[in-house]
Write a structure and sequence with these properties.
Layout: H1 8-27, E1 29-31, E2 38-40, H2 42-53, H3 55-73, H4 78-93, H5 95-98, H6 107-137, H7 141-172
Antiparallel strand pairs: 1-2
Length: about 180
């Protein structure tokens, strides 16, 4: 029997995750002092969904959620949409290491999760987003790299605090595999 390419659980996670990401980015964003760059709680939701459901879910949640935000503000800003999608993909690539869904998210897993998210934030916000801003929109380099550094730092901080709390909390709701024993 052939394995389904995408489970119903993943499809539902993408829908719920994109909606939550959209609401948090659109309505719970705080100005940072850097033009067009906000402190964004949605990044924690994207991180947790990607960490639980994997790279495809992370990519789609980042892409769909950020696109919806931009569409409600006017027009899509593709460089940052792509950056959020790549960020979700990168977090999701290591989802088996975090063990959140197995109820085994401990200190070691939290350190791995945060190392991955810090590196992913640095890559997408100080590399991908600014370079695409320059290539697609001919934005000035000094402006977009300042925005990228601010976004990377704020996102990493939000995920370090809120994302870690959410991961520990969600993991505690899951039953550890070895805690169940078959009765004879």
């Amino acid at each position: 029997m052939a394995k389904k390419p995408v489970s119903v659980r993943t499809v539902v996670a993408v829908g719920v995750g994109a909606a939550l990401f959209f609401v948090l980015m659109r309505f719970v964003a705080l100005p940072s002092g850097v033009p067009n760059t906000n402190l964004n709680l949605g990044i924690a939701a994207l991180s947790i969904f990607a960490a639980i459901f994997g790279p495809l879910a992370g990519l789609l949640i980042g892409f769909i959620g950020h696109t919806l935000v931009d569409l409600t503000w006017g027009a899509p800003w593709w460089s940052w949409i792509i950056a959020d999608a790549v960020y979700g993909l990168l977090i999701g690539l290591f989802w088996k290491l975090y063990r959140i869904d197995e109820g085994e998210f401990g200190i070691k897993n939290c350190l791995i999760f945060n190392l991955v998210q810090i590196l992913a934030n640095a890559l997408v916000w100080t590399g991908i987003a600014p370079v695409l801003d320059i290539l697609i929109y001919q934005e000035p380099a000094d402006k977009v790299f300042l925005q990228g550094i601010a976004a990377a730092a704020m996102n990493a901080g939000v995920v370090l605090i809120l994302g870690s709390i959410l991961a520990f909390g969600y993991s505690k709701t899951k039953t550890k595999a070895e805690s169940l024993k078959k009765e004879d």
